[in-house]
Structure formats: C-alpha cells, structure tokens
Design brief:
alpha+beta, binds ligand ISJ, isomerase, EC 5.4.4.2, Anthranilate synthase, ADC_synthase, isochorismate synthase activity, 10-stranded antiparallel beta sheet
Length: about 375
C-alpha cells in the first residue's frame, strides 16, 4: 500500500497514528484501537507497553498541569493494525472502518488569536539571568489559537508534510475529535538493541533563498558566541544525564541542521548501553533537555509555568513509538499543533540566555510557528 492510500484511511478511523523518521527509513501508519492508556507516569506506561503485541504510539506531557484533553495530559495507543510503509512489515489485523468520518471541505479560518505581551512577560526571567550567573538558560514559548470552519483534513496534511517538511520527523496522533501533529527536526532518543542515538539541537538562525547568503548565515551561526554557548549547554546536559547509562560518542564541534524555515546548530550523539535500559527509562532520564527546559532545571520550569499563558501538554514533550521488541524512537514535539474539534493551538519557543535580544527571539518563534501555519494554509484552498 502506498502513502496516499494509507493517508486516506485517516478519514475512516476515529483512531489513527502516523510516524515518519527524518531519514525516511520508517514510515508507520496505525489504525483502530486495541488498547490505550491516559497517563503521565513513565513506569505505568512502561508496564502497559510491555503487554502490547503491536507498536504503541504516544507522548509523555511536558508538564503536569491540567488540560481538558484526552491527548495532551499523556496518551499512548496500541492500534489494531500497524504497517511500516517503508519496509512492508505489519502487526495485527486491519479493522473494520468506523465510517466515512470526513469529506474534503475547503476550510476557512474563522478567527486567529496571537499570544500577547510575550516580550513584557519574558523580561523578568531575562533580568533574573542578568542578575545571577547560575541561571543560564530558559526556553520560553508562545501559543497561538486558530478557529477553523471544519476539522483539519489529515489525509491532505500527511501529503503536505512529506512535500514541505521532507527532512523532519512527522508524527500525527488522532484520538476521536483530537489530533496532535508535529514536524520536528529534533530526536530525543532512538534505541536499536543496545545502540542509542540522541542529539543536541539548539542555536538557530534564518534561511535565505540565495544559497551564498544561506551559507554565510550558517557560517555565522557556527561562530556566534551566544548560540555556541546555548548549544554547548545542551550537549553537556544531555551527555551528563546519560553518561552512567551508555558509552557515548559525539563530534567536538556542532554541524548545521537545515529545515525549510530555519537552520540549527546540531550535535549527533551516539552510544552503546552499559546495562540493559528500556526506551521509556531513557526518555525519562533525558527529558526535559535544556533544548526545551533550561538550566538550572527547577528554576527554568518555574519560569516556564509563570511566563507562558497555557500549559504545554505534549508541546515540547517526548512523542514517539515503541515496538513490541522494545526498540523505538522518541522525538521532541515542537513545530506542532493540537486540534480539538475545530480549535487549533500552535506552539513554538526559543532559548533565552542572559545575552538574548527578546525582539529577535520573538521573530524566531514566529518563524518556527510558520511550519504548522503554512500546512494549515494549504487546507484553505485546493
Ligand atoms: C522550542 C523550539 O525549538 C527549540 C529551540 C531552539 C533554539 O532556541 O535555538 C532550537 C531548536 C529547539 O530545540 C521550537 O521549535 O518551538
């Protein structure tokens, strides 16, 4: 079955999932529900996963604040049927369709509400960092709300993701009238037997249509003291957090990771486990990295809670899948949206350091948010 036919099935099932790896080696589709768990407790999710005979998909929320949602407070599903469109491997049996749930409407934006006063709210954590060198970094986000005339067409969205975000991970989890979507460049952890792969993605600049200017922007980023420092903090934290669990290997200097909207400093980190550790334990050990939290972590989390207007839920949180043999992959749920009925919320954030220019960071956030906004715009006309 090809991607177009599999994407169409999103119209026929109340529960459906899609995960595509950034290197295009795996593209999983899952339909129906054989089991599910609503939880933010890693151990509970782990005990549940061990009993499943199909790959499971879901996310562990960034924070424990309450949201009226059957997805955003932590959710995993074991579909009735899963197929990896790239390898042809499948699990379970394709279920009866629920009904034709959706038709191809031309959509319309009814209203759109931006996050307000972000710079004013963010000035206080910035000032705290200027006053106290121990407070090094905090990642602060914005949320935007868009009200639509019809629910998002997920069939079309999957095709758009593949067309416009070819180098990112894609994840869609649909649970009845709720959907979480991410096109993220950031891997948290992949486990393959005893080999792990993680990465530091932090430090950002623009893209340019002119290849020479684009290259110059990348070179400038590689030499920019603020961004290098921000990146180094993330490399140090990630490697410290799992040094006792795995023997790690990573380059001395960051590379550049380009998405269509932005370019990042990027350090791939590989490792071999020293002792048997399952994927969800690795997720719990790593999350939240300072790419989405900050340093020191407790201070950063309190700043996030006080500064951001809404809880994050699965925004900026570990999302991914676990295969029945325990292998799998989690990515960070950024460049993302959450739809409930016809209300869509978008999230994007930026790392703030004592030397940050908040106007520039706000601009960077808008650029990151445009990943999902552009996908929504594609639904507004055929
Ligand atoms: C928070 C986001 O991105 C994170 C922040 C980055 C930065 O500040 O340079 C870069 C990549 C991500 O780790 C987002 O996209 O919403």
């Amino acid at each position: 079955m090809n991607i177009k036919n599999l994407a169409k099935k999103f119209n026929y099932y109340q529960n459906a999932v899609y995960f595509s790896s950034a290197n295009h080696q795996h593209r999983y589709f899952g339909f129906g529900k054989s089991d599910e768990i609503i939880s933010n407790d890693v151990e509970e999710i782990n005990n549940w996963q061990i009993k499943q005979t199909v790959p499971v998909f879901g996310g562990i929320p960034f924070d424990k604040q309450h949201l009226d949602s059957n997805l955003m407070n932590g959710y995993f599903i074991a579909p009735q049927y899963v197929i990896d469109e790239k390898t042809g491997q499948s699990w379970g049996k394709i279920p009866q369709v629920d009904s034709q749930i959706q038709t191809n409407h031309l959509n319309k934006i009814i209203s759109s509400i931006n996050d307000v006063n972000w710079i004013a709210r963010t000035t206080s954590p910035l000032q705290e960092m200027l006053n106290d060198q121990k407070k090094k970094k905090v990642v602060l986000g914005m949320q935007k709300t868009i009200n639509l005339d019809y629910p998002l067409n997920l069939d079309k969205l999957i095709i758009s993701l593949n067309k416009h975000q070819p180098n990112s991970y894609h994840l869609i989890i649909k649970n009845n009238d709720e959907v979480f979507v991410s096109a993220t460049p950031e891997r948290l952890i992949r486990l393959n037997k005893s080999t792990i792969e993680t990465a530091a993605v932090a430090g950002t600049t623009n893209r340019d249509l002119n290849p020479k200017i684009d290259q110059q922007l990348a070179n400038d980023l590689k030499h920019d003291i603020k961004n290098l420092h921000e990146h180094e903090l993330v490399v140090q934290e990630i490697t410290n957090k799992i040094a006792n669990l795995a023997k790690l290997d990573y380059p001395d200097e960051p590379k550049i990771l380009k998405t269509p909207q932005v370019q990042h400093l990027y350090t791939p980190i590989t490792g071999v486990l020293k002792q048997q550790t399952n994927l969800l334990q690795l997720v719990a050990a790593l999350h939240p990295t300072p790419a989405l939290g900050g340093i020191p972590l407790d201070w950063a989390l309190s700043q996030i809670k006080n500064t951001e207007l809404n809880p994050r839920g699965l925004f900026a949180a570990p999302i991914g899948y676990v295969l029945p043999n325990g292998d799998g992959e989690f990515v960070i749920g950024i460049r993302s949206l959450w739809e409930k009925q016809r209300t869509v919320k978008l999230f994007a954030g930026a790392g703030i350091l004592a030397g940050s220019n908040l106007t520039q960071e706000a601009r960077e956030i808008k650029l990151k948010m445009s990943v999902m906004e552009d996908l929504i715009k594609e639904q507004l006309h055929e």
